[in-house]
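Reminder to self: tokens first, then the designed residues, so the page reads top to bottom the way the pipeline ran.
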């Protein structure tokens, strides 16, 4: 599903037609936001934590590599929030990123975390076969990590 972009007009966004789901209903859920300030761009991503770095896929489809080559600073948050149990945890990393050659073994380890061990069941777009010239790693090595458990005792019942 392609990304749909909306720009605010003088009178606001108006109807968000063409969105793949109801934006208002989605934003009414108790979810967690990711925020970056300054010239950073925020995006959700799958990652692999290995060798004290966050490893993220990139390639010709993404501008992340170009942005990191121009300015290697990054800030990343991995968090969970479960209003039913009250568990709220976060790890925030800040440091320098680099674009490095793709390693298929590491790629399989990352995808197995999210898609399971049986590659034959993976969606075809995640297949790692043959040459991987158009894929590379973004290695995000934090200079600082913030780890926080802000869990709480839930006060309402959730279905």
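Designed residues (159 positions):
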């Amino acid at each position: 599903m392609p990304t749909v972009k909306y720009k605010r007009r003088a009178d606001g966004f108006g109807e968000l037609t063409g969105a793949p789901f109801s934006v208002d209903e989605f934003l009414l859920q108790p979810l967690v936001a990711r925020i970056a300030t300054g010239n950073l761009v925020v995006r959700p991503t799958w990652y692999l934590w290995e060798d004290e770095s966050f490893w993220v896929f990139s390639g010709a489809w993404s501008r992340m590599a170009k942005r990191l080559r121009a300015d290697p600073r990054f800030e990343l948050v991995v968090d969970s929030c479960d209003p039913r149990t009250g568990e709220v945890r976060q790890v925030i990393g800040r440091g320098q990123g680099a674009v490095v050659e793709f390693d298929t073994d590491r790629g399989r380890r990352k995808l197995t975390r999210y898609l399971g061990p049986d590659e034959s069941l993976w969606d075809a777009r995640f297949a790692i076969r043959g040459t991987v010239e158009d894929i590379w790693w973004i290695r995000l090595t934090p200079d600082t990590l913030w780890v926080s458990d802000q869990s709480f005792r839930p006060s309402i019942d959730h279905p």
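The two ends are 29 Å apart (CA to CA).
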